[in-house]
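Hey L., structure's done. Input below.
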Amino acid sequence: MPVIPMRSKANRFHVLCAKHIESEESLATVMFEEARRLVIEHSNIPTFSEILFHNLPDVEAITLKGGNITTIIFSSDTLSTLRIDKTGLQHLNITPGPNHSLNTLLINRNFITTLPKSIRYLYALSILDLSQNRIEYINLNWFQQMENLLVLDLSWNHIAQMDASSELRLGRLKSFFVSYNHLSQIPWFPIGFPKLERIRLSDNYWNCPWVASVRKQIWDRRIRLFDSDSACSEHSEGGLCCYDRVPVDVPARYELIEIEFQEQADGVGLEFKKVTSEPPPLMMAEQSDAGSERRTCDELRERVRGLKREKLALVKEKSEMEQQYSKKVAAMQETLRSVREDLEAAEQEVTRYRYKERMDLIERTAKINVETGAIGVS
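Output:
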């Protein structure tokens, strides 16, 4: 294959549509002159190895989108951003050893079931988004040494268990999203999250006593819950469905969100396509008889319709409030203008009064002087 030079643009951004690149050797024939941001689309390289990362020493951000890249072996001391979107990724390996360069790692819409323990070496991470995969287990201590971690998104996975030691402290974490998993509780939550501000917890199988125990802590610390469960087959505790027994045989659940990149004159645009979401019914240990309760598709559709109605009502209410606010502002401005006019008129009246008093004083003084002069002459 001939060498393919790719000239850098002013912003040093390259998009490579690599449908015919099927090996590391063929990708090595592509030259990226002074590239800083690289997007590789539709590549069929089975393994994106550490060799490829080392061959891109000047690249600061890589996006792998679409295609078929089932294995990634990450090793780079210069890369700051890595996004892996819908490549069919199944195996993620991270070379052991401290990494102080990568601060953003986004792996979405793939098939990862386990995380390598070596993820703990990504010390510089501030954003870690692993949503929409098939991860089953998380040990929160893996993220303990990521002192700059601000966002951790584990939503839309198969996580049924989280472990953590009593020493867990995610010191700077502000956003923690675990909605649409199979969790019944989170260890040392929210004690191990001292700076937490935002959470997403909906569509799990929370244990009722656990929810009751953390509700007050969430409220006292003013942590904002950005979602809630609108329909529960058993109990509802503070907007979250909870259960007396831990669910078993939980089926997979997915949300497919199509996000397409479009190259534009001034950079890259995002196009959001149709979102499909239909979690299957909750499976409990005692659901062997056909008469037991379960979440149906009709209930979910009704929930969506209800949310749409609530959205329309909120939009209408917002419009009305904006109109009322505009009217109040206009009225206040009119009142302020009137007060200013009255103040100016009063100031003018005071000025005229003081001028008249001064003139009267001058006139009286002159009259007294005349009278005094006349007396002196006589």
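Helices lie at 24-28, 50-54, 208-220, 297-377. The chain has four helices and 22 strands.

-- N.
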